[in-house]
């Protein structure tokens, strides 16, 4: 099996032609370049994929090419991802769940999750990762780059299944707040949810592991739920703030 252990490695060279400056969501250009290279990464087993993408200097992180578009915040984003992936791996092992539905960009999160499961001495062959995305470029990237099943749909349209862990990893929630709240209430517990809190909230206030409902309008001008409204309604839910990084917050919703 090929690995990226040396800079002369042909796979690494090919990938450097594809990953110019990967940000949060894969682009159509990246997908086209990846398809040209025919790397076959998505056809690898999970352990082989992990080995192929491991960084030489730090075996618990993927090759540095995957971080180049994230700028100065790359390190704190990665530390936050490692914590979230570790939390999910522990919850899945504790609940004996072997299926997960989640969103990801270029594959950093899937790498962190598989590595966390391996650290817990799990047999990765027993696990099923289903990557969901609304964005066609993101889905096409997943199909080419990440082993697992790939679903091009709205994650909030899925009928949650008891044997599955759900990780809703939103960049922007936009007008999805009401439906995300409904999904959080209905889906099997625990589940994890991440999103950016946009203005007018300002700095995230967390007290006793809960988001403090800020003052302001509970609805936007168009009548949709605002962040103020969402956090206020979330008081009905049993959740804890798992981590927060700037305006990006991750919650674990429990029973
Ligand atoms: C935060 S990005 C993933 C970033 C990734 N974890 C990383 O570290 O690079 C979130 C993805 O969710 C997708 N998305 C947003 N709302 C969605 C929905 N309702 N259903 C499915 N995918 C959605 C976006 O298209 C985007 O690709």
Calculate Rg over CA atoms. 18 Å
- Give the topology string: H per helix, E per strand: HHHHEHEHEEHEEEHEE
Give the low-pLDDT segments: 1-5
- Helix and strand content put the structural class at alpha/beta
Lateral strand order in the biggest sheet: 3-2-1-4-5-9-8
What best-fitting shape do the alpha-carbon axes yield? globular
Bound heterogens, unique: S-adenosylmethionine
Let me know the number of strands. Answer: 9
Based on the coordinates given, report the CATH architecture of the domain at 76-253: 3-Layer(aba) Sandwich
Q: Count the DSSP helices.
A: 8
* Major β-sheet annotation: 7 strands, mixed
Summarize model confidence as the mean pLDDT: 91
What would the CATH topology of the domain at 76-253 be?
Answer: Rossmann fold
Estimated share of beta-strand residues: 15-25%
CATH class of the domain at 76-253, named Alpha Beta
What gap, in angstroms, lies between the N and C termini?
43 Å
Q: Can you give the helix content as a percent range?
A: 25-40%
């Amino acid at each position: 099996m090929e690995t990226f252990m040396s800079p002369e490695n042909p796979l690494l060279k090919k990938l450097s032609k594809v990953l110019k400056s990967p940000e949060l969501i894969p682009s159509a250009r990246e997908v086209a370049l990846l398809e040209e290279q025919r790397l076959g990464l998505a056809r690898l087993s999970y352990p082989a994929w992990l080995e192929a993408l491991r960084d030489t200097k730090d075996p618990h992180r993927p090759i540095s090419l995957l971080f180049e578009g994230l700028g100065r915040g790359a390190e704190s984003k990665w530390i936050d991802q490692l914590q979230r992936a570790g939390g999910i791996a522990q919850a899945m092992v504790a609940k004996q769940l072997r299926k997960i539905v989640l969103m990801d960009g270029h594959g950093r999160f899937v790498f962190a999750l598989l590595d966390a499961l391996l650290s817990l001495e799990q047999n990765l062959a027993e696990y099923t990762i289903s990557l969901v995305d609304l964005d066609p470029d993101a889905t096409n990237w997943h199909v080419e780059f990440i082993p697992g099943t790939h679903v091009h749909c709205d994650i909030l349209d899925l009928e949650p299944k008891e044997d599955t862990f759900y990780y809703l990893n939103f960049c922007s929630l936009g007008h999805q707040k009401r439906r995300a709240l409904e999904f959080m209430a209905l889906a099997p517990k625990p589940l994890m949810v991440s999103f950016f809190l946009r203005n007018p909230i300002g700095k995230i206030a967390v007290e006793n592991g809960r988001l403090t409902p800020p003052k302001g309008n509970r609805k936007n001008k168009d009548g949709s739920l605002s962040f103020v409204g969402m956090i206020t309604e979330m008081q009905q839910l049993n959740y804890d703030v798992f981590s927060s990084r700037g305006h990006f917050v991750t919650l674990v919703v429990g029973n």
